[in-house]
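User: Show me an example of a complex going from sequences to structure tokens.

Assistant: Sure. Here are the input components:
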Amino acid sequence: MKMSGADIVLECLKRIGIDTVFGYPGGVVLPLYDRFPAHPEIRHILVRHEQGGGHAADGYARASGRLGCALATSGPGATNLVTAVQNAMMDSVPTLFITGNVARNLIGKDGFQEADATGIMEPCVKHNYLVMRTENLAYTFAEAAYLATTGRPGPVHIDIPKDVFTDEAEFEWPGEISVRGYDIPGAAPQDDIDAAAKLIDEAERPLIIAGHGVILGDAHEELLAFAEHSGVPVLNTLLGLGSIPRTHVLSYGMMGMHGSYEANMAASNADVVIGIGNRMDDRAIGRFNDFNHHAKLIHVDIDPGEHGKNLPTAVPILGDVKQVLPQLTSAVRARSHMDWIRWIDEERDAHARSMAIPSGPELTTQHVIKRISDLNDDETVIVTGVGQHQMWAAQHLRVTRPHQLITSGGLGTMGFEVPAAMGAQVATPDRTVWSICGDGGFQMTLQEIATMVDEQLPVKLAVINNGFLGMVRQWQELFYEDNYVSVAMSQPDFVKLADAYGIKAIRVTEKDEVDAAIEEANAHNGPVLLDFQVEAESNVWPMVPAGAALSETVEAPEPETASEVTS
Amino acid sequence: MTTEQSQSVKHTVVALVEDRPGVLNRVASLFRRRGFNIDSLAVGTTEETGISRMTIVVESENGIVDQVQKQLGKLIDVISVSDLTHEDAVSRELALIKVACTTEQRREVLDLVDIFRARAVDVSPGSLIIQMVADERQLDSLLENLEPYGVLEMTRTGRIAMLRGETTTAMHATEPEDVLRFHRQLGRRVEGELPYVSD
């Protein structure tokens, strides 16, 4: 039976398991929008900006582990999407981005709202397509979904000219997808496993760095089994948080620029480092050339391009973490590295001050984050923006399961927090979703509150309002001699703003109001904005200055008082 | 930096790629964004319909070439990548050189052409076009010898290479029929369509 391209696209979305599209209409996608009502199985959520739609698809995918989908029109619609696409690329999030384009006869003629979306997106995606024939739509969507969700996941973009939507073709769903230039690694060769096992068995101070790949590869149980069997303590990258319960005795939290002191010292003193599904990013590893010269590196990753990209690797292991970890578990001896763990514990206890939450009467971001964590259970999803509050969240949140913490890691996209939380809420309607927003990032994408109202998405928006772009201010204070330039921001009255959008709002200015506000927000069935007017000039400690080695972790200067210590 | 450069070698990387519009853009874009330098790049068809072969010469250290290969391999349209640098391979480049040459000088220039086993493919009263197929060093050497006469114009194809003996870097995996049909539909540029179509 012949179908229009628009119907084929919507039929394809159903076949690849998309139930929600975050979209924004425009001229060239009108033929597609015209057919949405005929496909009620697909929920279209009208966002207020394409970037919001893109981040929502990203948040949807991260909260659920399913493929997220965003749709935009040609030209400005496509270019507005780019930030979200690159964000998904940097963090390997399985996402499908669809854009319309001008009709085929207008491509290359600088038509109205024409942009070379395929060319613009190309460096930001795992793969992309410009579909020039309606009969190719079905195969393209099947292949796109296959590429986005397998191997190292990532964004795939499909660009469709207007008249490809209106042309008709037979709908033929491919029985099998085969891409000869694309291999999906599975189990690792036994030789590599044996080489790694030998190093691990001989190690005195072995250490695991677990990254986002463990969560993307659904291998958190396998990681736990490996860590418990081998007795090797586990550090996380920012996006790896949740791959092992933070409450577990072998979990030592985040390493890196704002990692804990003991994590960075452990990484700098280990004799064997086992990277699992991480990409040895500069923010996690510090200055590459001076990362722990004594350590032999074992690196498990599904992407061969990550092996040796940033650090020389003794044993690269190419494979799927879910299969490789059990291989490693059965290859290594059962051990408990008590001396090494005691060493790390002593570092932690001796430097507890470095990550302590200020005990004074003033309202601090750390306190707000700690209380959000304490007053919510582990089923809650917490999304953050980018900057100081993000780092404090990584330090103080009790993250115990995958998909619990959702944050923009690689690209560091301010403005991610509101739309990504919206997407997470759509994907997991039964969970409470908190968005910890910076007052800067919040104002980049706050228009999506209107979408939350329309779609009745009860996201809790905790705006950390310190009147500064906090992380930039911290750098100007520490590295530019207090020369504050373009870093203080006047804010609108966020409570009035929330009121204008018709959502509940609570202003919090005192420390003793925090708990009641969080509980009130949790009890409210609808979006809530909490305006936390926090102390303006706190710094995130510890800190590895940009370009320094991990072993050069700097702690807070003495005068900062501390008492409340988190795990 | 200078020490790094002195350690670097010219590597010959052969990539078999899907013969689809946009694939050259993907490869070029990858080299640009990862900061790899292309010395030369030659693209052409192969014995297998639907597969093009790119010979890329990269001047860099060994570690970088490893990354070049891995990153190239990640591109979906790249089917296979091999480094022929340290392999026993035939490597050739074709050059066309237009050299200024009076009728009096013609004999000695043609002698040079003979010595280098090149050919004169166009003769005019004031110039000659010389065609030479060789490896880069011999081409450079011919060029050096022609310089005194005045090189008016030159074009070179960039290196292409192939393993000696029966071993190949070729790719003969056939694909399932529906996939093949899809590629056939998708991959060929139909007359009247735009050159820049990346499917």
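The lines above are the inputs; the final block is the predicted structure for all two components together. The longest strand of chain A covers residues 95-101.
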